[in-house]
Design goal:
Helix content is about 55%, strand content about 0%. The protein is mostly helical and about 250 residues long. It is elongated.
Length: about 250
């Protein structure tokens, strides 16, 4: 937690967004129409500003609008606000904090199948292809052959083979090697099989097994999401724009 606070305090010193009263005049009327009861207004205007941003003042304004949308309704706007802000900042340290914040806030469960992604008629074939990938990774030639013998399993395996060093024919060929075993695949190939399994299961994001493999079990850097207003040093209480300034 102390490390997190250090990062945040450092960012506040480097990135005090919106501290200047200067605002681009072409947005003045739209800014004055904003109401805290309607966070979507802030986010939509932020998108417009970001799209035509030409200088730091415009980018700072867009970041402020996204951050205020997050503050006013984090459950609806935090994820979108983080994704919208990322292209507007260049500092690697800020990107790392935003990425960690996004992971901490996300309610998605990557290792579970997404509902409706797999047709019932193909479930057996998909699960057999998943089993085949597990067997390939563990070096179990008997289970690999048994899994690929399931009806249409090879087709499902081949459908994700672009992620892998080869298709089902390649998998069966290397399984016949005398050296086939748990160490046959290198680290990149192991990660590729995990990603392919996630795709077969209908996961929209990387499975946690892939995340753990890549980061070797390292803990996330943020335990609780950090409000974007805190990250960028914005006074969340000043969410109304009047007479050329936030109040």
């Amino acid at each position: 937690m102390k490390t997190l606070l250090t990062i945040v305090l450092g960012l506040l010193l480097l990135l005090v967004v919106g501290a200047s009263p200067v605002m681009t005049s072409r947005f003045k009327e739209r800014l004055e129409d904003l109401r805290p009861v309607d966070p979507e207004q802030y986010f939509r205007l932020g998108e417009e500003v970001a799209e035509i941003a030409r200088d730091d003042a415009d980018r700072e304004l867009a970041i402020r609008l996204f951050a205020l949308a997050d503050h006013l309704d984090p459950h609806r706007w935090r994820r979108s606000a983080i994704l919208a802000i990322k292209p507007l900042v260049k500092e690697a340290s800020v990107h790392r904090l935003l990425d960690a914040n996004l992971r901490a806030w996300s309610s998605d469960v990557d290792f579970l199948p997404a509902s409706g992604e797999t047709e019932e008629t193909g479930e057996d074939a998909a699960m057999a292809a998943v089993d085949a990938l597990s067997s390939l990774r563990s070096g179990d030639r008997a289970d690999l052959r048994r899994a690929l013998a399931v009806d249409k399993a090879t087709a499902r395996f081949d459908a994700v083979s672009e992620r892998l060093p080869g298709d089902s024919v390649w998998a069966l060929r290397i399984s016949r090697s005398e050296t086939f075993g748990p160490e046959t695949l290198d680290e990149d190939a192991v990660i590729a099989t995990l990603e392919a399994q996630g795709e077969l299961l209908g996961s929209e994001q990387r499975p946690w097994s892939v995340v753990l493999q890549i980061h070797q079990g390292q803990p996330m850097t943020v335990i609780e999401p950090v409000p974007l207003t805190d990250v960028f040093g914005i006074d969340a209480k000043r969410s109304s724009f009047r007479n050329g300034q936030w109040e």
